[in-house]
TrEMBL record, chain A:
Organism of this sequence: Delphinapterus leucas
Keyword flag Membrane: no
Domain of life: Eukaryota
Stretch list, region Disordered: 668-690
Record's subcellular location: Mitochondrion
Identification of the protein by name: Small ribosomal subunit protein mS39
An example Gene Ontology CC term for this record: cytosol
Family that this chain belongs to: Belongs to the mitochondrion-specific ribosomal protein mS39 family.
Function field: Mitochondrial RNA-binding protein that has a role in mitochondrial translation.
A biological process term (GO) from this entry: regulation of translation
One MF annotation (Gene Ontology) recorded for this entry: ribosomal small subunit binding
A Pfam family hit: PPR_3
Keyword annotations: Acetylation, Mitochondrion, Repeat, Ribonucleoprotein, Ribosomal protein, RNA-binding, rRNA-binding, Signal, Transit peptide, Translation regulation
Gene: PTCD3
Compositionally biased intervals (Acidic residues): 676-690
Automatic annotation (TrEMBL), chain B:
GO biological process: mitochondrial translation
GO cellular component, one term: mitochondrial small ribosomal subunit
Originating gene: MRPS35
Superkingdom of this protein's organism: Eukaryota
Recorded GO MF terms: structural constituent of ribosome
InterPro entries to which the protein is assigned, alphabetical: Ribosomal_mS35_mit, Ribosomal_mS35_mt
Biased composition (Low complexity): 23-41
Species name: Delphinapterus leucas
Protein name, UniProt field: 28S ribosomal protein S35, mitochondrial isoform X1
Small ribosomal subunit protein mS35 mitochondrial conserved domain boundaries: 166-238
Amino acid sequence: MAAVPWAQWLRVRRGLCLLLTGRRAGLCGRAPSSRFYSGSAAVPEVEGAGATGTEEVVIPKKKTWDKVAVLQALASTVHRDATAAPYAFQDDPYLIPTSSMESHSFLLAKKSGENAAKFIINSYPKYFQKDIAEPHIPCFMPEYFEPQIEDISEAALQERIKLRKVKASVDMFDQLLQAGTTISLETTNSLLDLLCYYGNQEPSTNYNFQQREQAEELEEATEGSNEKPKKKAGHQLGVTWRAKNNAERIFALMPEKNAHSYCTMIRGMVKHRAPMQALNLYTELLNNRLRADVHTFNSLIEATAFVANEKLEEKWNNILDLLKQMVAQNVKPNLQTFNTILKCLRRFHAIGKLPALQTLREMKAIGIEPSLATYHYIIQLFYQHENPSKGSSLIIYDIMNELMGKKFSPKDPDDDMFFQSAMRVCSSLRDLELAYQVHDLLNTGDNRKFIGPDHRRNFYYSKFFGLLCLMEQIDVTLKWYKDLIPSVFFPHSQTLIDLLQALDVANRLELIPQIWKDSKEYGHTFRRDLKEEILMLMARDRHPPELQVAFADCAADIKSTYESQDARQTAPSWLASSLNHIAVLFLRAGRTQEAWKMLGLFRKHNKIPGNELLNEFMDSAKASGSPAQAIEIVKLAGAFSLPICESLTQRLMADFTLSQEQKEALGDLTALTSDSDTDSSSDSDVGEGK
Amino acid sequence: MAAARLSASLVLQPRARTLRAFSTSVSPATRSPRPSPSTTERTSRYGRPLRRKALPPRTEKMAVDQDWPSVYPVAAPFKPSAVPLPVRMGYPVKRGVPMAKEGNLELLKIPNFLHLTPVAIKRHCEALKDFCTEWPAALDSDEKCRKHFPIEIDTAGYVSAGPSVRNPKARVVTLRVKLSSLNLDDHAKKKLIKLVGDRYCKSTDVLTIKTDRCPLKRQNYDYAMYLLTVLYHESWKTEEWEKTKTEADMEEYVWKDSSSEKNILETLLQIKAAEKNLELSKEELLGTEEVEEYRKSVVSLKNEGDNENTLSQYKESVKRLLNLT
């Protein structure tokens, strides 16, 4: 059995400050070479006192450490509490979020409160001048967003650029030109930087969490659906580079341009999706015999991949050309270069595999350490089409072998997508050992930072837990369940259904009421498929009496949730199968009153009771010895015109002693049912019924 | 826009729910058209949202052998849902019991040390051992410590929650030293004691200098050491005006040249004169044993105060001196 790697150091959610764990290398007490002797707080001797002992008192040198080392050492003594919600939430049963949407909205509410406070402070800075923080904390003081310099000068232009006011700085630039002053090359370059970065639009104030998330969503949507190449989808989002906008105009107006200006323009064009223009500008750069820097080359590689209507081999050749030019211009590639190449190769699907491996080898040959994003792209490339029948590549095993025990630091914006894709591959390969390896990597050092935002973490853990339910022994799975849910992620109903099926396989159905109770806590009270699965599993077989009682309680609970849901919605949510199961469970536990009430519900919601159910009712009626109930059943069957009505009637006649009027009522009933029979003719029916 | 984005990103059942409006960017046009029911906010048919139900406290899920320092890693207020003990606190009404822990303000007011259980302290000590250096092997007893390091410095640091790390109380420095470890002769010691006044404790022979007049702890420490140095050197010097030390300035009673000596001499001379015995001179008189004893008893009486012993000693010596026994 695989050893259970406990999920330690599981960090808090959603982009909050982290408790750094482990002891830093700043604690330099060990190596004698790095000890710093400080004037020891040990006591100096008074002159004349004379420490003339027979032994010599050797005072060791004092150790020094950085400011947070003690806190980190103390933090290493505590672990994650598996029952607690993340620390950002108030630890009160009323205030803990019960679903991932709630937790998202709580955190957003907190953040929006902070933003509102910042807004107020920055709007009325004169009321917030008192500073009691010692030493001074600059981010607590109000910031000044309005430009102070009012006259038309280059300093004013620089100030506006620093404050990121796009329109104001362009206006100031025009005014300066009209006034005839020459503007230095650096200032113009910094103005071009500003314009190209923001794409000639003002930076929006709610830039922080809205737009970037949207960009990620659609990016994932495009990655996810691979069948139809969605090259154009998602491009409506964000800013596009319009021709003859301010940046180009200013660029044209510049009397002299240096390499920096060209580079900025190229990078701006590529960022805002104008690849052809970027490539044209690059040829112009070469014509002017200037050199581009490494960031520009990275953008150009991206541009060549974006160009439409070209075959993939041509694109790859173009990229290779660019690389050769890079070598010719003596520009050293960096990590971003290789990551960009791999990102572009992803779009090449199958033929990108070999170049990807070549790129990786080249990267290692140069000595650049690959980051997690690199491996993410490779995984995406090799495992794009999840089709196990074709045979999957084994590259994931090589990757994991290489990554074991390594600690990473953030180097690329896409670093946080690695774990999600790795777990996705593990899940599709159904390999639990590999999943444990990936999880171990996540828990090494500070790698927990790379789990990404909420939805990515949820995806990772859903897949992980799904794999555990499928492949791992039930005890271990239950331990993971207690550990992960709900303190790490809120499960989907599909995850819980997987867990229930695992319990079913391992024959541990007695835990079902506990699972139901837990799932009510995190918002699954009204998930129909989950409730049906639970009811089905409980009602399938007969169980020992105590268990039956527990199941009946659970069923009553589920019934009450159905009813409260009914009270709110006009469309009824009952299914015939759920009604069946609930009734059966009541009967088996001996709660016959409620079971009989269920029959009324059948009629009310117009659902048809199953055959076994009716038989069981008949059994219970026989056990309680009341023919009236038996007649009820037959009437019900007749009302629904069920074919079983015949056998029920016969059974009724055989098992029960009926009074005369009951027999007559029964006779009418059977007459009615046989009237409605489509097979026989009406005349013979009438004759038979009597 | 916000609600739609969230429902796209998170895999949800079709009942997406509205977010409560937050201040930044939700525009009215993009809110979903009707408020849909959520699990915890139950809306009745009449549109009034019912109360959100609280979860069961998480003490129910805690295992008996859980890691308690992880539940309370730092000083935190008492959380009844996180502490699995059935504590009660409060004054009971007549024929009642003290109040339970849920919603109990008394339990919140008092400081709790749930984060410092013995297990936690042991772990902290283990973790902090790496920051410590070894104790010098030669200093294995208190006397040796005092011998090698006679001066003791006391300082205090303060932490509090707040944006400022400064605390004006942290600048106080107290220096303690035993005068027996300083190289002082009799005169120097007496002069030093006179100079420091209250700061010397006679019973423990400890000089305590407490400085807080400088703004920084470092400066106060330097000032305290400076004071000690100055006192030492000054007490060794003898000034001109010290010769004019009168009896009123003496710290302890000295019998020589005192009024008691004069008195007893006069008395004895008168006795001897009455007995017509004028041979003995002053020095011989003073040298006799009875006078010695008398001197001792008077000195002890004056220095130590009145008690049984000294008084009886005085009585005996006077009787012997005056030949009364």
